[in-house]
Write a structure and sequence with these properties.
Helix content: 25-40%
Shape: globular
Order of helices and strands: EHEEHEEHEHEEEHHEEHHEEHE
CATH topology of the largest domain: Spore Coat Polysaccharide Biosynthesis Protein SpsA, Chain A
Strand content: 15-25%
Largest sheet: 10 strands, mixed
Number of strands: 14
Number of helices: 9
CATH superfamily of the largest domain: Spore Coat Polysaccharide Biosynthesis Protein SpsA, Chain A
Length: 287
């Protein structure tokens, strides 16, 4: 099977280099690694000549990162039978691609992989795959699967776009990522709901990727405008609210009025730069 790896990026140069180091150690290499830069040209990491790398860029038309557009552009550049979308923060485990390939070969689904989260400092200097495996932990909201284990699911709301595989045909059936969503929040859940609407089955697979640590904003006030805009867009399309925990957190802090049952989401005030900084934390596992 021909399989391409697809990554979108802005900044995160060290993370991209670490991802390249992971691909070099992969038991099965992607046929091509397609990297799309957002508002920047891609600095191609060294793959030792072992992987064919294709790069492209897309640019913002507003203040938000064009995440959906960049993923769609990466898919357009691929002519493979299947595609693995891997967030720039993720390092593929040696068997990740093989686990995805076996899953797709068994069943044409939207397959979400198994990200494991690393502590701070785990990848800032030289590292080994064994060290990453020993240090990484599973996210409590996602299934914990063994290598290659597969679990069909109807819980489309648990889909996250940081590590997944899909055939070209199923991606086209879904229609790609909706570019009505701009910036962070909601676009991956929208993609999953579109998969459900178009009868593309869903599932989880033990395809391990190691998520590199970075500071997080809790709640994500650094993406406040995009989350509000995308939540309203999602509500119009699917008749339910996404990201309710974040919207409730915004409401508790007085930034919005959010009443899910009464279909109300109103901005009261915007977070200041100081408030955004105060919400930034270095949690041990990065979530």
């Amino acid at each position: 099977m021909i399989i391409d790896a697809l990554t979108i990026v802005r900044g995160r140069e060290l993370h991209l280099k670490n991802q390249a180091k992971g691909w070099i150690q992969s038991v099965r290499k992607p046929n091509r690694w397609i990297i799309v830069g957002m508002d920047e040209d891609v600095t191609v990491p060294d793959t030792g000549g072992k992987i064919d790398v294709i790069t492209e860029r897309v640019d913002t038309t507003n203040e938000s990162l064009p995440l959906a557009e960049a993923r769609n552009r990466a898919a357009q550049l691929s002519n493979a039978e299947a595609m693995i979308f891997l967030d720039v923060d993720c390092i593929p485990s040696p068997n990740m691609l093989t686990a995805f390939e076996d899953a797709i070969g068994e069943s044409d689904r939207l397959w979400m992989g198994s990200p494991r989260y690393l502590p701070a400092g785990a990848t800032t200097s030289d590292w080994s795959m064994q060290e990453l495996r020993e240090k990484a932990i599973a996210h409590p909201l996602q299934p914990t699967l063994d290598d290659g284990e597969r679990q069909p699911s109807t819980e489309y709301e648990k889909f996250w776009s940081l590590c997944f595989a899909i055939t070209r045909n199923s991606f086209q059936t879904i229609g790609g990522f909706s570019e009505d969503f701009a910036g962070y929040g909601g676009e991956d859940t929208d993609f999953a709901f579109a998969a459900r609407q178009t009868n593309v089955p869903f599932g989880f697979v033990g395809a391990m990727a190691y998520h590199q640590h970075h500071a997080v904003c809790k709640p994500p006030l650094n993406h406040f405008d995009a989350i509000i805009r995308n939540a309203i867009q999602f509500r119009r399309r699917w008749d339910c609210w996404p990201m309710e925990s974040w919207l409730n957190a915004f409401a508790q802090r007085g930034f919005v009025r959010f009443e899910s049952e009464r279909d109300i989401l109103e901005v009261i005030k915007h977070p200041t730069e100081d408030q955004i900084q105060d919400a930034s934390v270095m949690t041990p596992a990065g979530f």
